[in-house]
Amino acid sequence: MAYIRKKKDNAYLITVSCGRDSTGKKITRSVTFRPELLTAKGNQKSETAIQKEVNAYAADFEKKVLTGHYTEGHNMTFEEYSRKYLAEYAEVNQAPRTLESTRAAVRLFVSAFGYMTLENLSPLYLQEYVNHMLNTRKAAGKPGTLSQGTVKRRAAVLSAMLSQAVRWNLIESNPMDRVQVKKAAPAEEKPLCFTREQAETFLSILDQPLVYEYGQRCRKDRSGNIRRIQEYQADRSIRLQLKLFFYLAMFTGCRRGELIALTWKDLNFTEGSLSITKSACRVNGETIIKATKTRGSNRVISVPAIVMDVARRWKKEQAAYRLSIGTKWDGNDNVFIQWNGMQMCLDTPYQAFHRIIRNYNAQRPDGAPELPLIPLHGLRHTAATLLIGQGVDIRTVSGRLGHASTSTTLNIYSHALKELDRAASDKLEKALIRSIR
Predict the structure, then answer these.
(1) In which region does residue 154 sit, left (phi positive, over 0), alpha (psi from -120 to 50) or beta (all else)?
(2) Is 12 helix (H, G, I), strand (E, B) or coil?
(3) Does the predicted TM-score (pTM) go above 0.70?
(4) Is residue 119 within 8 Å of residue 171, measured between CB atoms?
(5) Helix, strand, coil in percent for the chain, rounding step 5
(6) pLDDT in tens, 83-99
(7) Which of 7, 55, 102, 242 is the most exposed place for a label (fewest CB within 10 A)?
(8) Distance between CA atoms of 128 and 133, rounded to whole angstroms?
(9) CB 164 within 8 A of CB 174
């Protein structure tokens, strides 16, 4: 039977005995209950009515405890749980970049409903919270409301947290399982990768100088005199290390962080291969080296001879440059570097990629089509799509990309597989029609 003790502020401590443990220590579960003192009409409740309500709550609490339906989530607030989740799960299991985004989402959740107990986080309340996020404006200076993609990612973090609470027996079920995030309206499809012809064009312009046009302007010389400079054009060659970066991205399908993290010992010039064992990412404003995205991302990739030739040339050029700056060199055998030998910034290849495409589109020959301004990650998609288009089996493509499983590759590149299926259908039709005729 539940033991009831009245505390201060009209609160009641309800305790239920659950027997003893292996050492003979008594096991108890307790909860604090504060009954409503006023009726629905605002009148004072009688002591008898209050006691009846307390006894009913105590009986229900005892039933939940003895039948195994009472969890720690009845008393634990979301803020308390979030600290345990970050310390005991997220910090142990999540990659640095993922952990950073998880912490950012948790801060938002705590500010909104950190005071609530886990048991009181109902599907309806969380649905209202998700709907509110869809109407929340972006950070200061940015127009519009949060994108549905952003809301969906935050909802996924919250769902993962509450799923872990279920596994830890803090709540019986995950209320986020019954929350729906409004689907985004179909967006206008934008090219995420190059076609074969566009890929060939991009590779060809890496050997061509970029043409920059400078408008008329005035400049002050050292003596303080102002002189007018007429408009002019200037050619600037694409740096060899950028050419190597784009070659590797196109021919291996590696992720940006995996390429930035490369050191010279990762390139096997004898075998013509590349070892991927680490990746660079930005966490809290700093670039760090971490493990690859998944266990399957650790891989050795065969690299074409033309790419290895560019790598040899860059290694020789880098060595000469290192001697030229002497003690200013502060590198650590990085393949892709800043001016002082330190690892290249993560934004550098992205900015250079778009600068090259824009420059080509502005200076392209008459009648030549523009190159689409795809994201840098589009080179990875280009590699995968072209491989599938050439009939390379999915397992090989998945291995080169470093996917955890072939199902990931199948899901991402279903469009390329559909084109192969259509081509197979056409070939089968031609073969059968020819035999019939």
Answers:
(1) alpha
(2) strand
(3) no
(4) yes
(5) 50, 15, 35
(6) 999 999 999 999 888 99
(7) 7
(8) 9
(9) no
